[in-house]
Amino acid sequence: MESRMSQDTKEQAGKKPRTAQGRKRTLALFYCQNTPESSEAVRQALEKKYASRVRLFPIPCSGRLDPLHLLKALEEFADAAYVIACPEGACRYFEGNTRATKRVDTTAQTIAQIGLEKGRVGIVANSKENPKPLAKLAEEILDRTRELRPSPVLERPRRGKGTKEKKDDHSRKKTH
Amino acid sequence: MITAERKPIDEIRAMIAPYKRVLVLGCGSCVAECAAGGEKETGMLASTLRMANKMEGQEVIIQEKTLDRQCVKDFVVLLDDVIDQYDAVLSLGCGAGVQAVAEMFSEIPILPALNTEFLGETRDQGYWVENCLGCGDCMLDDFGGVCPLARCSKQLLNGPCGGSREGKCEINPEVPCAWQAIIDRLDRFGSLERLEQIYPPKDWSRKQGGGPRKIMREDQQR
Questions:
Q1: How far does B126 lie from chain A, in Å, by closest CA?
Q2: Which ipTM was obtained for this model?
Q3: B105/A176 Cβ within 8 A
Q4: What is B111-126 written as a DSSP string?
């Protein structure tokens, strides 16, 4: 994954933990519920530990992941969106993890087309021989994504109510 | 079904560049089946475009909606209440869908986000193949259910050409020889004598010889 990061990204590594607006970077983490030690209590404890830096989304199998999940996360709040999958050959539903890998690749290609680094999305397969608990995997992914610069998608002031007002604007006359 | 593929993002962005309020409009029929323009793909495209605009600091409203079918006016009319909120519609329908929406809403640009490809069969997950040209005069009964016009690279009605190797076409070893399939199937039916029939050149007047085609069924009309 590191090789996917741009030079620009590497240069910023460790220099700037916060954006110009003081926003902490956020990781969206989708994880297969068959990941060891990934109960709801663990999820809540991890979200408390990392505060807004990590948002965890349990999914019944990594094969449930859709590129839209990753894109929406990147669009709305996340500087990076990752998936934790079961080891190769160990998916409870046989091929969920291989499907997830393809979908992450599709998403990476999509965001690259608009100039976002491919490294903002990724998939981490657990180890078959030495399976790691969710907390350990989350920590490793957080370390990895720390090298990313703040997302340029989220750098602009967020438009809240103003957007909605325009969305609901029915003042225009019909043209047909 | 009709198959399609999404245009490159750059091309789509160039198309919608002049507009400030864009509706990304999906279609839940054929293009959803071929994973090009269904609800998911519509959401993905809209999300990608919104991100691209945010990165460039552009104030553009991009919203999404998916109709069950864009090529049926009974569904297109559902846009009537929302269409005025937009400067343009980016349609993920096939060419027929884009034009049906454009015909109903003549005052607003309806832009195609997809390249419509062919009439195809879903051979496997994520794998679609062309096997019908829509010629208007089906001859599949003569050819064991395999269309030589759609599936033979040379569109031979009087094949085989003799150039295939191990059941593959000489123009591309990945393309199965349609005539090999025809012969295999006719052999299975005990109908190989059909190969002795000489077919005259195809009458293409029933495809587009008379301009755009239409079907009128009085028994189906109001």
A1: 12
A2: 0.88
A3: yes
A4: EE-EEEEEEEEEEETT
